[in-house]
Amino acid sequence: MSTVIRPEKVFDGETFLPSGTEVLIDGGQIREVGPGLVADDIVELPNCTLTPGLIDCHVHLTIDGINPLAQLTEPFSLQFYTAADTLRRTLDLGITTVRDAAGADAGIKRAIELGLVEGPDMRIAVNILSQTGGHSDGVTPSGAVHHLLPEHPGRPGPVVDGVEEMRKRVRELQRAGADVVKICTSGGVSSVTDNPHHAQFSMDELEACVREAKSGQTPVMAHAQGKQGIINAIRAGVRSIEHGVYADDECFQLMIEHNVWLVPTLLAPVALNRMIDAGASVADEVARKSREAGIAHAAMIKQAVKAGVKIAMGTDAGLFKHGINLEELQLMQRAGMSPEAVLHASTQSAAQLLGFDDRGAIRPGLRADLAVFRGDLTSFEGLSSRVAGVYKSGRKVR
After folding, report:
1. Are residues 34 and 125 located together in one domain of the fold?
2. Which residue from 95, 159, 245, 326 lies 20 to 30 Å from 348 (Cα-Cα)?
């Protein structure tokens, strides 16, 4: 059955379309866009804005807020049921596609494809590659081992050293169903034993990762916070820089020259600092790094916007509880991005980064992945409470 959606406004992935624009969907696809359309069913949406389904390029669906004690004491299989819940909550926000930046395995992705679980479509990294002593090495100062994402039959382990180990682990990730390989080229905030400013992995290791990934047509995303780690990642050939906390103009120029996206995850330090203020139990070193990163991150994104770097929306949801993802749009706007630029980063640009050519825009022939928000989208304040409808492949799921 064909349906015409008549909102107050339509954002098509690049710009707001003229008043009176309607969208006809049928068979899971967008068939027509324009005024005066006719269909079997009419959906009137006064005072609402229609957008392509949003895309979050950085989530961790098997985690719902970092809690080391809980992760040490909960049953192994609970993570899969956690993912079923976080997927549903993410879809309810109007996010119809995600890139899981480590945690979800091929079985979770397959459950979505089979309709066993309701949630966004997925690209998956499976796990995060780290050098010994790096961001994803779970050996703590006490000698205890606590990998945030421990190895299991569907998830190869995170720690690799040397070119040959790197080559083999990338192949193992591809065998496990990874759509993207994620590698840490700098230290991080939530890890106790490393420094965000320090570069990680040698250039030989990074180039081996990218070369092996590309041989299997798998792009590489880089957790990269410090300047040298960012530069190394770009020169090695990664597709996106995640976080980019301490990036500067030299980094931005390289991103532009090498056609590399920035996925800023502005919400990550904001939410982590909130959790610390509320009394979350974290190491003093993590709290210190988080405060510093929050200040640097806010300044960095303003420079990146001015430089003209390609930006795709990503949140790092999972570090904090899922469900507040849309605050990222508000933070991007505060950084100087126009409403159109924020929405473009959250739809068409994100789809391009993830390699999708069938979504991310409202255009005839594309999938009818759509989100409806009450009011106009000149501001993103309180956006989570303004979600009025979600369509996935033309089917209303909220």
Report:
1. no
2. 245
